[in-house]
Amino acid sequence: MTARPRLTVIGTGYLGATHAICMAVLGLEVLGVDVDADKVDRLNSGVVPFFEPGLPELLTKALESGRLRFTTSFREAAAFGDVHFLCVGTPQRADSEAADLTYLDAAVTSLAPHLDRRVLVAGKSTVPVGTAARIAARLRELAPAGDQVELAWNPEFLREGFAVDDTMRPDRLVFGVTSDWARDRLRAAFQPVLAQDVPVKVTDLQTAELVKVAANSFLATKISYINAMAEVCEATGADVHDLAEALAYDERIGGRFLRPGLGFGGGCLPKDIRAFAHRAEELGVGQAVGFLREIDGINRRRRARTVDLVVASCGGDVAGKRVAALGAAFKPNSDDIRDAPALDVAATLRRMGAEVVVYDPAAMDNARRAHPELGYATSALDAARDADVVVLLTEWNEFREIAPSALAAVVRRTRMVDGRHALVPAVWAAAGWDYRAL
Ligand code: UGA
Fold first, then answer.
1. ipTM of the complex as predicted
2. Contact 96, 278 (CB under 8 A)
3. Ligand 1 atom closest to Cα of residue 266
4. Looking at ligand 1, which atom is closest to the CA of residue 215?
5. What pLDDT shows up at residue 438?
């Protein structure tokens, strides 16, 4: 076997496509694998099927280098790869708060029967603790190479919008392994990343699985903590921004992930804390992480309170009112609308009888598919035409740059509800707007 292993990346969604592209750019030979033939064709022809700054350029570069291609064939993947990364999604189940492991199990069942030599399979997907041990046993059972097929767990911490940087220069790598051989295979796979002095934590499978959910739970807790403080501030007239700034000077607390507002969404934080609480209950330690339910509750309340603020700004009723919703993605620099607070608020206002017109710089197609009941515009100003109230729901830079006078020229009423604290209140108030924020 060559010192530098050949990699496969199974599942070319957000995580897998980014991992495959970045590893190829870093000099490794990579084969991406997906059951979706259309996605495979698009990637092979240089099209990234989602919005991520910098990634399309790197895909072109990786394809031109000849080190990256994509396939639907697991047989080909098994013949090619020395290390197989499992990057399929683990969404929330439709019928409970648990993680849906269908795609992961299907990937293992498709790959394993072709594994006829010593290889490493490395899981990257976010999973309930204990999943890796189950998959390791399944691989041994299904693979012709039996015990020669080892499993490692290598959680991924990338953020959408910063995925390239987070993959090329991660804060840390976590290798959950059961042998020195597996550890050394991972070291070889990540050699170009490790060359930049990235810290590595080598640990067991279950700790590696837990690091990921513990990290996301901590981040969710930080956001809900400041949003809980915001609720108290609202009741007392205190200023949560001054509070957050004052807290942040304490290096033990730090200032990141302390931005109050509409709260967290996306395909990770909300479902991960629910799946973690669920798994902990199964393990008999539900009480230990019972606070995560409260974190989820505080987060959901932010959406309800934003709706209340819009209703209040319209004088108590939004029925028949025209609402301009600026933003649909769960955060800026993303077209991801999974569990997006913005669309949740927009859809709730629509259910209450408002006519809601949405504009988002990147997530329009996804939003339209998920919420055909909402109206859509081609720009922020277009969305705001004749609006009774404008609601800022995702803090894209282009919304921060809107001049109050330009917006005032097209709306029916100058009412602004800033769900993300993205605007300067004094500027809008001075321009004659009824400016409100949570
Ligand atoms: C999150 C984690 O940050 C990543 O480390 C992790 O790898 C990823 O989930 C995952 O599990 O795959 P991501 O979902 O891309 O990454 O987005 P974040 O930047 O974490 O933002 C999550 C949400 O929190 C967004 O809706 C954002 O608007 C909100 N947020 C963030 C706040 O409301 N306040 C803050 O101060 C920070």
1. 0.96
2. yes
3. 14
4. 5
5. 84
